[in-house]
Amino acid sequence: MAPKTITVIGSLNTDLVSVTARVPSGGETLTGTSFHTGPGGKGANQAVAAARLSRANPHSASALKSKRESDKGEDVDIVVKMVGAVGNDEFGPKIIEGMKEDGIDVTGIQVVEDQPTGVAVIIVESTTGENRILLNPGANSTLQPQSFLPPSPSSPSPFNPPPHLLILQLEIPLPTILQIITTASSPTPSSPKPIPILLNPAPAIPLPESIYPSLTHLILNESEAALLTNRPVSFVEDPSFEWSVVTQEFISKGVKNVVVTLGSKGAFWASSTSPPPSSSTDTASTSGDKTGIKSGFVPAEKVPMVVDTTAAGDTFVGAYAVAVVRAGAGGEGGGELDLEKVVRWACKASARTVQKEGAQGSIPWADEV
Predict the structure, then answer these.
(1) How many CB atoms lie within 10 A of CB 303?
(2) Distant-in-sequence, close-in-space partners of 236: CB < 8 Å, separation ≥ 6
(3) Is 314 a catalytic residue?
(4) What is the mean pLDDT of the chain?
(5) Which of 89, 170, 217, 272 is the most buried (most CB within 10 A)?
(6) CB 84 within 8 A of CB 110
């Protein structure tokens, strides 16, 4: 059977990470405890997460077993393709080579001559693992809408063949994101059904209401959910806040599956198409209502120590994507998607990530979750 494809369109950056006991105040200079660089960008991180979480660590015993099975004719079941842009500088080629090592299809990555590779300056508090990020997009800003127009007699489809799931974030220009969504959700002779789309609206900016019916999956955190529903962040951070209000709001706008990640608390999910909940005996909770929306809460996994939360959300997205594609056609229709099970596994993968420093270096492989 041919492998299923996950295409990620988004940012590719180099992360410049300083670790300190606390973030300096305005005008204050502090001495950090460590510094490192590495590949990053939400698009790249999510592609790496999907690639790693779809297979075993190539250096592990389970991977060697899989290779023996592959030699007998059994291939990997998921291929991840990255579409984005880097500069022709000291960072760009290293990013591409690193993605190749993770088994990612990099044929969609452009090398831009007159722009630097995107850079993220990250400060991590060693006491909490929390981070603050300043992003300079560089070559990421060169991804323009005209590269993703619908097929015509003079230009082929930008999605040929169409992926089983398309993952987007908001670190490339918004007009480009909107054009991608329009093209991917419009049937063509080569793709008679809309391509399932997963949007992670980060960093959060206001979005047109017209895009929501095109989204199969919406994954966002507390602050992003607050901005997109015109609520103060302090309001949604109240422990008594009912997340079902927010998820139902997105579903009423046309989104099929919504997940709000809640950091160390876990994640709240809602779906208009999920099958009945499983007979789980753990602390996850599920409910339904007369509108047909099913929802539930999955608690975060307990970890001994949170070291760095930088790529936790991206790991969640990658794990989620792998699970829904394996469930069938990106989770579209048929009642095949057990969203509670998907979210539980994504929470588990994220818990592995926060126990290590760095972005992509902290993302686990499938056999490590």
Answers:
(1) 15
(2) 222, 223, 225, 226, 243, 246
(3) yes
(4) 88
(5) 217
(6) yes
Instruction: Name the token pair of 258.
Output: 């919504």
The amino acid present at 272, given as its one-letter code, is S
156 φψ region: left (φ > 0), alpha (ψ -120 to 50), beta (else): beta
**Domains of the chain with bracketed CATH:** 4-24+34-364 (3.40.1190.20)
Tally the residues of the chain: 369
By three-state DSSP, how is residue 14 classified? strand
pLDDT in tens, 59-93: 776 555 655 555 554 467 999 999 999 999 999 99
- Number of helical H runs and strand E runs in the chain: 9, 14
Q: Which element (helix H / strand E) includes 324?
A: helix 312-327
- Residue carrying structure tokens 């080569």: 190
Angle in degrees, 0-180, between the axes of helices 42-52 and 92-101, rounded to the nearest 10 = 20
Do the bridges between strand 294-299 and strand 285-288 make them parallel or antiparallel, or are there none, so unpaired?
Answer: antiparallel
Residues 6+ apart with CB under 8 A from 121: 16, 18, 133, 134, 135, 136
d(CA 185, CA 221): 24
Residue 28 makes CB contacts below 8 A (sequence gap 6+) with none
Please report, as a single letter, which amino acid is at residue 281: T
Identify the helix (H) or strand (E) that includes residue 353.
helix 339-353
Question: Helices (DSSP H) in 80-156: which residue ranges?
Answer: 92-101
- Three-class SS of 160-217: CCCCCEEEECCCCCHHHHHHHHHHHCCCECCECCCCCEEECCCCCCCCCHHHHHHCCE
**3-class secondary structure, 322:** helix
Q: Of 350, 303, 304, 306, give the one whose Cα is nearest residue 129.
A: 306
pLDDT value for 35: 94
Task: Pick out the chain residues at pLDDT < 50.
Answer: 73-74, 274-281, 290, 329, 333-335
For residue 239, the model assigns a pLDDT of 86
Catalytic one among 15, 102, 308, 314? 314
